[in-house]
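hi support,

uploading two proteins for the ticket. first:
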Amino acid sequence: MEQSDALADVLKTIRLKGDSYFCSDFASPWGMEIDYNQNGLFHVVVRGRCWLQQHHESQPLHLDQGDIVAFPTGCAHWIGSHSRSHRLPAQQVVEQIQSGSNPFSPHDLHPVTHTLLCGSFNYDFSLDHPFLKDLPCFIHIKASETPDLDWLRTIAMVLANESHTASPGSSVMVDRLTEVLFIQLIRFYMNQHKGNLGYISALADPQIGLALNLIHGDEEAYWNVERLASELALSRTAFTEKFSAMVGMPPKSYLVDWRMQKAKQRLQQGDDSMFTIAESSGYSSESAFSKAFKQHFEQTPGFIRRQGK
């Protein structure tokens, strides 16, 4: 059986969408106050050096040119040219820049000191998936400490250019490049936290990561706890304990939940028959599937299908 990529499957299912708000030149002094946002936010320091502070931290953080910072869970923070710069609400800044009236626009007396790229990551939180629950509050890729990621900064520069200059196809380029940026941020976080507990670390674990790939590559409800444990050369008990500790739920629960999420997606977006969806979810009859589906989501498959249409 071909091995799937669990991370790619999860990102597709949570409907990851990237968006760039702006890439603009600023003249000092400037600052933005960013409120909590359910979705993720990111900044790329294209030019200059600036300051950033999360609201729960006591000290501001110095950002260098080429640094990339992200708040996958949308934590409140501020960013500015100086730690004591007057700060405007971020929403106001975005609206003004997008309407063509940059509040920090350079001019003869105040030349360009910084160029900043800002945007967001959006997800479907209705899925209640452990990946979303395990997203970190803050990721910082320092240019000075990651020369091996110069290619990523090149992508960020292309993204900045596409955001800065409207060209045919720019909106598609911006969306795709922002999604690439998000995936690399998660990869970076995974590499920095190997061996930790949590879903994102589980994706990188040689054993649990393999189990997740097998589950996400399953189109016909083939895998169960015994088969997964055997594939990993672990006892059922050892596999269940390790999987539960890292993922946050037993493998049986994860299997059921994922199959139900995929079934829900097929009901919303496709035209497969109810029996076909039931069978691929591991149920021998529509009635058994419908009963389990309603118990899982507190809504019937028919209701979900009509809602999707």
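and the second one:
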Amino acid sequence: MVADIISGNEVAKAMRAEMKEEISKMKGAGITPGLVVILVGEDAASQVYVRKKGEACDELGILSETVRLPESTPEEELLKLIDKYNADARFDGILVQLPLPKQINEEKVLMRIDPGKDVDGFHPVNVGKMVVGADSYLPCTPAGIQELLVRSGNDPKGKHVVILGRSNIVGKPIANILVQKAAGANATVTVCHSRTEDLPGLSRQADILVAAMGVPKFVKADMVKDGVVVVDVGVNRIDDPTAKKGTRLVGDVDFDAVKEKAKAITPVPGGVGPMTITMLMKNTVQAAKVHHGWTG
């Protein structure tokens, strides 16, 4: 058995084509979705993410603004800026790029964003709605995982999903999303982490395995059963003398070994990654619909 490759690039491309059509109709009704991204400091990875978010907005026809603030920005200044965009009707979504410099309290910043503009899905109001299964803005990476599964023909319904990792960004939210009594969910979910006993034994029970631990090539072939569907969320840079830059990206799964046993698997790069920004765009469009009462 050689696994089908679940391409995040292809799914993201299809979703963006759908959104472009939808945004075009919205503009015909005088509605332009808007997103502001605030970046504090010079973190290299954050700079790349922010640039890609701007490019995605331009591609889809979403009004976008990027505010770059120095590393030394006081917390109060950032909070006042968030207040300003909370009140600005041109922008349906506000995203503050994480991580933040040490003088700024991340929790205070996330709390300050209007939950109706929290297109990252991190405000406690939206997290609470997600847990109880109410309409909310879902965190982008977990929501992207659900889309990848459904659109690749691997519906989680009735399946045993084992999640490796319990972060607030991926592990906990994807568990909450897939356990809901809803389309694209209805799974039986087990969450494993660094304190789990016999983690390999549990991972071998998975019909669908989601690896989000941040450990390069952690999941070996002997940790999965034949016919498993594997979603690899890991993005780890490792040394590789044969690569042009001396390093390369790998996931949390030993891809070459596991793909021989899996029914389907996401690659790294090109799997979950492209979905994150696409889901951010989807949340921004949804926020615009809500703010304008647009039903299409």
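thanks. also noticed: The chain has two domains: 30-117, 140-274.
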